[in-house]
Model the fold of this input.
Amino acid sequence: MMAMRLLLVEDDELLGDGLKTILSLEGHSVDWVKDGRAADVNLAGTAYEAVVLDLNLPYRSGLQILEQLRRQRNQVPVIIITARDQIQDRVCALDNGADDYLVKPFDTDELCARLRAMQRRFYRVVNTIIEHGNIQLDLSSHRLEINGIPVTLSPREFTLLQVLLENAGRVLSRQRLIESLYGWDDSIDSNAVEVFIHHLRKKVGPGLIRTVRGIGYLIERPG
Done:
């Protein structure tokens, strides 16, 4: 699954914290909010690639948020997570624009699988392999091979390499890379990007990622 910018809307502290951790470990950048008003603010100001949305929320319900999204012709994929297990609840949510519906309690592996399926439907991920010289990055299996030899990357190392390869020939600023790796409320070390770049260079070789002083980082287009 390719890394996505996700909005998680869940007011249960324990569940929300667990989901944010698991989805981040999958390589996604996750913004977690705990009520309907905060969800509206985030959706108005940020372009998300998917929303994981509870129905029972303070201030505004998940159904109200969903209805407003679709009235505004915002077609961001939405998966509902809720304790409501009645057929009429499922039908109502799906008829009002939800793309999937998952009843609590659920296995987090199933949530990740449903997000992958939703991503395939909406973003039509066909070519999942990025090739750059002797490098092959398989986005579907999160696998890196160099000269046919597997190289192990952490989820954030993988995401960082993916973003740089997808933008080969363009200098990406440190801020742009931070936004691809973290949600807005994550605690971020001041040198986090530099640390990940350092680890990547040790694994893929020192010459692939070039530092453009005062601007950011660059992977050159293949010659």
